[in-house]
Amino acid sequence: MVMGYAATERGGRLEPFEFQFGPLGDRQVDINVETCGICRSDLSMLDNEWGSTQYPIVPGHEIIGRIDAVGAKVIDLAPGQRVGLGWNAGSCMVCEWCLSGNHNLCAAARPTIAGRHGGFADIVRADSAWVVPLPDQLDAEAAGPLFCGGTTVFNALEQFAVKPTDRVGVVGVGGLGHLALRFLDAWGCEVTAFSTSTDKEADAREFGADHFVNARDSKALRAVANSFDLILSTVPVPLDWNAYVSALRPKGRLNILGAVPQPVSLDVYTLLAGQKSVSASPTGSPATTMKMLDFAVRHKIEPVIETFAFSQVNDALEKLRVGKPKYRIVLK
Question: The pTM is what?
């Protein structure tokens, strides 16, 4: 039996929960969970914000642990090896997206916590292709959020060919945003942090921001018009989207990383006049995650975390729900 923490209803408390896996597939692995980060997406799934949650749900998709068992056809991972697992735990491996290394775009990708039990448990199971070895140079306790937040940010930098000479804005100095600032600073960009929390300015600058803008100040937003090659929105809330599009230089891009539940309304003329674009991007593929980890090692990038025991999972979730973490929560 596997021991985990599950909710049985929308927004419910997580309680101890026992379950069993079936036989281990030929290309699957079981991971003994050591730590698991908590992501805003865990709350979205607990609350069924996206309409896809199946209860009981065992959340958790920023997992660090050691391989417990490997399937008969797994040749690149071994028991005892320390690895990480993020948002997806499997994909079809035969479509054009998987075959081109874009596994994260597979229509049959299987999220770690959708229709299966995630990392708030003793053991999690995944397809081996999605299980990535953790470099020894990274702190295993802090590394879990890199497998969701980290690879999501890094994927955007890769997909849109961000250059060291680019001027980039980051909306939100939180779980995703603080990692975006660290990656962009190491990338060599001129970085501006936008936040409604002015008390985060010192932290934002420590993470790598060259400038800070109070996102509640409409005058300050107007003052940075025509300034950015790229703006990354890392928050899961509606924004004054037209103000941020106006802040882009010609050919600039506003890219959405936070899962905003409401429709995005935009002035198309502003897009047309400056040949600007608005896009969104998901978490990275296994290959992107490996590159991200290598970059993190090279530049000594790790999330800022606070830890809770697994038995304190409800306290940890409540702290995230009210927006109080600094900056990612990890269960251990």
Answer: 0.94
